[in-house]
Amino acid sequence: MSYPRTRMRRMRSDDWMRRLTAENTLSVSDLIWPLFVHDGCGEEAVASMPGVARLDSDGLWRAAEQALSLNIPAVALFPVISEEKKTSDGAEAWNEKGLIPRVVSGLKSRFPELGVIVDVALDPYTSHGQDGVINDAGMVLNDETVSLLRRQALTQAAAGADIVAPSDMMDGRIGVLRDALEAEGFSNVKILSYAAKYASAFYGPFRDAVGSAGTLGKADKQTYQMSVANRREALAEMRLDLEEGADMLMVKPGMPYLDVVREAAYVFDAPIFVYQVSGEYAMLCAAAANGWINADLCMVESLLAFKRAGACGILTYFAPQAAALLNQ
Ligand code: PBG
């Protein structure tokens, strides 16, 4: 027998051969586009996220049109709330005439075929920037917060949201939201749980974008978001959320947590989503802007890696660029 006996390179000889044997593919149908929307007029660029802006409602309709023309299945909305509307309990979060309910119903009436995902969490609305209500010691109160998240999610569902995505990491909120949605006639509203959400420093640019960096100050979210050291705990979080009625699970951030995506996809039969967060986006953009990496190739590679790990969908600020590239 001549050496080498096995030639793995034989299968890599030509582009058609490599395509034929690809184990995973990235498609436009994998993409969810996160969008920031504000109450003011016009677009405000987000300095730490090149190419990303806070949109007004007209800008949002244009983005939705773009999403549809690129065949992106869904958008995820994040509100930027003016300082005077922020309170300690975040009451603007369940104002039926608030920004998110208005733009959700605007989107669904104009573009009924576009999926609309909304974030369930109080941080854009609280004067202290935490995802829930706090006591005098600054501790985020679990059960009190869950009852407010319930009001927020019902307001979003009433406005026409297709998917509510709790990103707050309170205990027991999935069960409460599922029961509330069933009881109030929203049994088709889907729950995408940010089940394994880590207390990550990669959310920095997002907090600039929604303006919670300033309100949060030096405080952190370590008493509710997960420790970056833990993997088995993520599986426990995910199992609980499925038992409580989540339809889909999310891991967040993405690239530093591919092990968690991989394991979740292996262990659970529910769809697993992954969020390529603002800090990941900012890093790739910054390196590309310096000419240190190839922007398109690194973007596609980072997204395909999520598919390889087992994700069935990806929230990414690159959604329009990636879709345009994939549609070529
Ligand atoms: C807030 C929320 C955050 C993100 C999505 N929803 C930030 C946080 O928890 O402080 C981060 C998204 C990103 O960084 O792109 N509930």
UniProtKB/TrEMBL annotation:
Its EC number is 4.2.1.24. InterPro entries: ALAD (IPR001731), ALAD_AS (IPR030656), Aldolase_TIM (IPR013785). Keywords: Heme biosynthesis, Lyase, Porphyrin biosynthesis. The keyword Lyase applies. Pathway: Porphyrin-containing compound metabolism; protoporphyrin-IX biosynthesis; coproporphyrinogen-III from 5-aminolevulinate: step 1/4. It catalyses: 2 5-aminolevulinate = porphobilinogen + 2 H2O + H(+). Gene3D superfamilies: Aldolase class I. The keyword Hydrolase does not apply. SMART domains: ALAD. Homooctamer. This is Delta-aminolevulinic acid dehydratase. It comes from Candidatus Doriopsillibacter californiensis.
